[in-house]
């Protein structure tokens, strides 16, 4: 079997150890020749890289592994690039969340003004990364899950219109599928989903079992009766449990389809603002929780010299998904994933150049997305408003336009009021001086 070369961009990410464990777990079905971790932060990367050396000595001794901050070493002769960077780190995520909240607006890393701020930071680095990769590996598949995926995908669509080997993908739909699997006591790998929307802004319309029966009515019934929890509820922080619990409310109000959890920020902005703590946001929870746990555990493994009893770094949907997606492409498995792609009629009453999220058959020749036809007025209205916000944000970035940024924020359902939008925007501009283009 062919052995593949992979680079993980953002090798120092909190998700990397889980991803490395997924690569070990899948070594028989998706064998690697070479794996490189690349990061711009040598300190973070060293901890994860030294952990990886111990893990691979025990579980993947034949692997040619290295970690680096040198782009040529990182990108040369690669088959797959897994990209998970966070421009500005958790320090800026905290500002994305706290600045809007200080004006009484949703503070979330991918939704509302926080998502805009993070998007305007990510675009420049993502363009640079793709240009660098293409210099050294013109044919590599670039699997990107850097957030905010909707804004990143729209920017990359504009800059690299002919590059058919960039795939933007989010793991939230997979996590939801796994959670439905737990609810029904069924294997989620057997589900055939029908899904439409934008990233962090979509709905499952149907979910077929292997005999073609639609499971959505049953799932709705259970959620409405008993509530909803993530598949890995035991490992989740309270904020994620609260997020999943609100799916019941969303179904009570809008029972047509199963909503992506992120829709709660758009359906219930007032309620969510009241619930969010402006002094201790998700960024604080992550820095005090996952980030600490992951780095402490890596350091413990390095000191112990063995990864055999490594426990807190579990395999979650994120690592598994990205490895399985690569394997489906490499071996033409044609499995179904929910991916981000240019609309071109997939949702027939939405503009062609929207980057939409739908189910797709994924094989060697890339995704073959599945259309959903015409959608109802409520969903079309929501999507078009959010899409306008996303497109105007990307316009603002490329044109350096303050006006477009203000229009974008005013259109966002989490903001609405233009005077408020201006105040939040001005504060975000100040906080992002180092990262954003100048908006005039
Ligand atoms: N699409 C999804 O569903 C999904 C799921 C999980 C995480 N993510 C995304 O993955 C990314 C990583 O998340 P995290 O919480 O682990 O953050 P993190 O800050 O722990 O990790 C990001 C790493 O990227 C590095 N980095 C920053 N800019 C870089 C650049 N230009 N080139 C190379 N490396 C760079 C940082 O030094 C850091 O080590 C984020 O964008 C996050 O939103 C996406
Ligand atoms: O707040 P964070 O940093 O914990 O998470 C932000 C990410 O949330 C979603 O990812 C889920 C993922 O679906 C699940 O598999 C598991 O790994 O937990 C993650 C959240 O903890 C979302 O899809 C991502 O885009 C976010 O980056
Ligand atoms: Mn996501």
From TrEMBL:
Positions of the Glycosyl hydrolase family 4 C-terminal domain: 195-415
Record key words, sorted: Cobalt, Glycosidase, Hydrolase, Iron, Manganese, Metal-binding, NAD, Nickel
Residues of the active site: 171, 262
Residues of the site described as Increases basicity of active site Tyr: 109
Cross-referenced InterPro entries: GlycHydrolase_4_CS, Glyco_hydro_4, Glyco_hydro_4_C, Lactate_DH/Glyco_Ohase_4_C, NAD(P)-bd_dom_sf
Annotated substrate binding sites: 93, 147, 282
Signal peptide: none
Pfam families on file: Glyco_hydro_4, Glyco_hydro_4C
Molecular function in Gene Ontology: hydrolase activity, hydrolyzing O-glycosyl compounds; metal ion binding; oxidoreductase activity, acting on the CH-OH group of donors, NAD or NADP as acceptor
Binding site for Mn(2+): 170, 200
Entry note: cofactor: Binds 1 NAD(+) per subunit.
Domain of life: Bacteria
Cofactor: NAD(+)
GO terms for biological process, alphabetical: carbohydrate metabolic process
Positions of transmembrane segments: none
Sequence similarity: Belongs to the glycosyl hydrolase 4 family.
Name of the protein this chain belongs to: 6-phospho-alpha-glucosidase
């Amino acid at each position: 079997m062919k052995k593949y070369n992979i680079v993980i961009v953002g090798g120092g990410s909190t998700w990397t150890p889980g991803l490395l464990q997924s690569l070990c777990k899948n070594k028989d079905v998706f064998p690697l020749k070479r794996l490189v971790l690349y990061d711009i932060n040598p300190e973070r990367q060293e901890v994860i890289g030294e952990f990886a050396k111990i893990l691979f000595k025990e579980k993947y001794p034949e692997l040619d592994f290295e970690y680096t901050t040198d782009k040529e070493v990182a990108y040369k002769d690669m088959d797959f690039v897994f990209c998970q960077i966070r421009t500005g780190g958790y320090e800026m995520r905290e500002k994305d969340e706290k600045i809007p909240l200080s004006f009484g607006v949703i503070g979330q890393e991918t939704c509302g003004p926080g998502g805009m701020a993070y998007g305007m930071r990510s675009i420049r680095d993502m363009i640079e990364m793709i240009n660098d990769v293409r210099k050294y590996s013109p044919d590599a598949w670039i699997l990107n899950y850097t957030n905010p995926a909707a804004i990143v995908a729209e920017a990359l669509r504009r800059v690299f219109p002919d590059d058919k080997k960039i795939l933007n993908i989010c793991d939230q739909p997979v996590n939801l599928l796994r959670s439905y699997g737990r609810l029904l006591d069924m294997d989620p790998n057997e589900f055939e989903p029908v899904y439409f929307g934008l990233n962090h802004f979509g709905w499952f319309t149907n979910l077929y079992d292997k005999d073609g029966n639609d499971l959505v009515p049953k799932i709705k019934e259970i959620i409405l009766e008993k509530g909803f929890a993530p598949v890995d509820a035991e490992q989740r922080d309270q904020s994620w449990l609260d997020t999943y619990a609100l799916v019941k409310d969303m179904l009570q109000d809008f029972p047509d389809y199963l909503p992506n959890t992120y829709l709660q920020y758009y359906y219930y902005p007032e309620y969510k603002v009241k619930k969010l703590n402006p002094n201790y946001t998700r960024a604080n929870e992550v820095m005090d929780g996952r980030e600490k746990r992951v780095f402490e555990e890596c350091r413990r493994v390095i000191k112990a010299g063995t990864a055999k009893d490594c426990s807190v770094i579990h395999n979650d949907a994120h690592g598994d998904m990205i490895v399985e997606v690569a394997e489906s492409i490499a071996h033409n498995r044609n499995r179904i994933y929910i991916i981000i792609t240019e609309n071109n009629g997939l949702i027939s009453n939405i503009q062609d150049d929207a980057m939409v999220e739908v189910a797709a058959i994924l094989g060697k020749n890339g995704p073959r997305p599945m259309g959903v036809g015409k959608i109802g007025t409520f969903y079309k209205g929501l999507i078009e408003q959010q899409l306008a916000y996303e497109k105007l944000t990307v316009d603002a970035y490329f044109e350096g336009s303050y006006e477009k940024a203000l229009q974008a924020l005013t259109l966002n359902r989490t903001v609405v009021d233009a005077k408020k939008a201006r105040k939040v925007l001005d504060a975000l501009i100040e906080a992002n001086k180092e990262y954003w283009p100048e908006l005039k």
